[in-house]
Fold this protein.
Amino acid sequence: MKIVKFFAIALFSFCLSLGINILSPVFAESSAANLVQQGVQLLQQGKAEAALDVWEQAEIIYRQNNNKLGIIGTQINRASALTSLGFYRRSCNIALKAFGNELECDRLTASDLENVLPKFKTSNNNLNFQGLQTLGNGLWAIGKLKLSQQVLEAGFPLANSQNAKGQLLLNLGNNILSQAKNFANFNLRKQREIQALQALVEQGLSYYQQAHNVSDEKLVQVQATVNHLDLLLNFRQWYKDPRDNFLQPYVEFQIDTLPQSMEILRQINPNINSIQLTIKLAEILMDFEQIDPRSTLVQIQTTLTELTTANELLNQAIQQAKTLDNSRLEAYGIGIQGKLSQKNGELEKALNLTNQALAIAQKVSASDVAYQLQEQLGDIYNQQSNSPEALIAYKSAFNTLQVLRRNLVALNRDVKFNFRASVEPLYRKLATLLLQPESGSNQPSLSNIKAAREVIESLQLAELDNFFQDACITAEDINIDEIDENAAIIYPILLENKLSVILKLPGTDNFRYTARSDEDFEEQFQQSLLRLLVNITSIQRPIAQLQSSSNQLYQWLIEPFEADLQADLKHDDSQIQTLVFVLDGFLRNIPMSVLYDSVRERYLVERYAIAVVPGLQLVDSSPLLKEGIRVLTAGTAQEAPSYRVEGYNSLPNIQEELETINKTIPQSEQLTDAEFTKVNIQNEINSAPFTIVHIATHGQFSSNPDDTYILDWNERINVRDLDQLLQTENLKRSDRAIELFILSACQTAVGDTRAALGLAGVSIRAGVRSVLGSLWRVNDASTAELMKQFYQQLLQSDSSQLRKAEALRQVQMKFIKGEIEPDKDYNKPYHWSSFIIVGNWL
């Protein structure tokens, strides 16, 4: 009988593959419906790949019967399976295309929604609703949170049941929770930002409370309660003022609903969601130890403690995971038990539990769980002062993360929205151990210095991946000597109360290392950087005051290597000509050109050409050639409609800037005023191979890609759209790459300590070899003069290869010496140091 059944299934599959319908339409529809239900059961059991296969078979049947609603339904189901597997982009795109949209989620903009949303109007209202929820959740998962919120909210008129409305409100609450995490990461804690964050948090809490009160589904009620508690606890960690009585109504909601939620989790038929919620509740309970005893949230802590313990919840979740044969959740639950033992000081027990969990995770290839457990092992070994074992564990975690990135396996969505707390520390812990001095020396080993450099390069890539919410960046190992034998690379690495600096000189394995540390060095360093930034960007500050604060940074980064930089070990008669910085954290917001050598009384740029790279692996080594240089300029001196919307003033000197460039470069095209639109820019780029694209307009770089943009005449051009804008049709970018992308009037977001990450993101997303941009918006008259001089320096080069960083250096030196508009204060660093080269410096 089994053999007959096997051949029947094989024949059925073979006929489907040939497009032969051997079933009657009625029987085929019944068969497809059964397959759909079978897929639902498989997904509930955690067997997403099997569910995906079954739903693909169902879709084939629906296509043969031309059942459009059946096709859409199976595609929405497939999107759910892909989400479970971590393929968020594919899931989102399927949901979008299921309703006849030939777009991709990555490219979706707010204006696109005017055409997209009306297509979610089939004859099946429930299907329309599920389609919007799936698309909204897909956009949420890839980091397009505002768009996700708009799509989810479009489902309100379609939510024709209490359960549907509850699910919608829960999804919106999850979206707001992620927005709040992003906001907390990207902004300083000024009063107006606290108020904005508080408003966002209260909106999310309200959605969760409504979801709980509206829905009849027990699991939705529990999800709403647990996520509500998670948001409350997160906000309490962001907002460290004990005067938090405004939280009292939300605390009372928790006290009222927590007992019921606990009971539901104990009695419910266990499934993946209920087990995940049980583990999450245990983690929340563990985090309550950090609550200020004066906080209103202590009332919840008391209630929780009376109801259960973290260990009881974890035991329950682990047993349920075993019942479902879900090894991934079992490993995760045991791992959290290990973390609980670690917090309680039971380090041997913590080691045993963590190793047990790791073995299970590795057996089922749950790499996204394994890397966290490997890091946890490192932390435990560190607590035991066992540095060798800690180093091995951190290296294993690092290697696992590298594989995760290469295989495009998405991390847990909560991890993506909390990168700085959940991923970045691993890189810094590993770098810290690698850079420990060898026994009997004050220096790390050469092999460890090289490994630390690799870790920091990888951190740069990981930050950019997280910036775009996508592992979209291709990196290649590069030998710097093959690019420029007269360049040195400097890696400042910010660790806990320590600044480590690695210098890579020309030659094989030619490294130098120095470090500064102190008990309060981290705070001292950050204060020094803030003071320097204020002095540079405030034109009223005396130059002597600026030079004093920039000399401090010079002493930390450059002075220890002065002897090495002054002599080229390969050619005694030559010296290092270019310094290339791979900057870390807030250092990215500081122009290295302004570092001041008080002994020789000169800025760093007076001695070296300077460039910044987001990582040496991302540098394209092709030089800019003088022959055939062609420029596309775009901008407006008028008050563009987009300027009015965004609150920017006009830039009256832009017209002169663009006209001067067009006179200097014979082969150039110009788009001004109403012609300055992204469609026209793309059309121009598609019509001719431009070497340089120069856009003079307002814009902003931020550590949040949603707030990294430039303005055309009508609207924002977001950083995520730049690669599409600057990509030529029918040719790969590498065949006809734009060598230099100049943004002459943009600035980093005020108060964003990692805003310059957005400038690096522009260079990567635009697919160009280098970007010339400004860290703050300078007086547009001096900017126009600097740009004019820059092009003249490029064309005056005696070589056929134009060195962009050197051209910028020559211009900045003219400003320093007062050769440009001597009756003005253009010699102040405010005017010239803002501009930096990111990427290829040749």
In short: The chain has 35 helices and 19 strands. Residues 165 and 235 are 26 Å apart (CA to CA). Residues 1-23, 568-573, 730-734 have pLDDT under 50 and may be disordered. The radius of gyration is 29 Å.
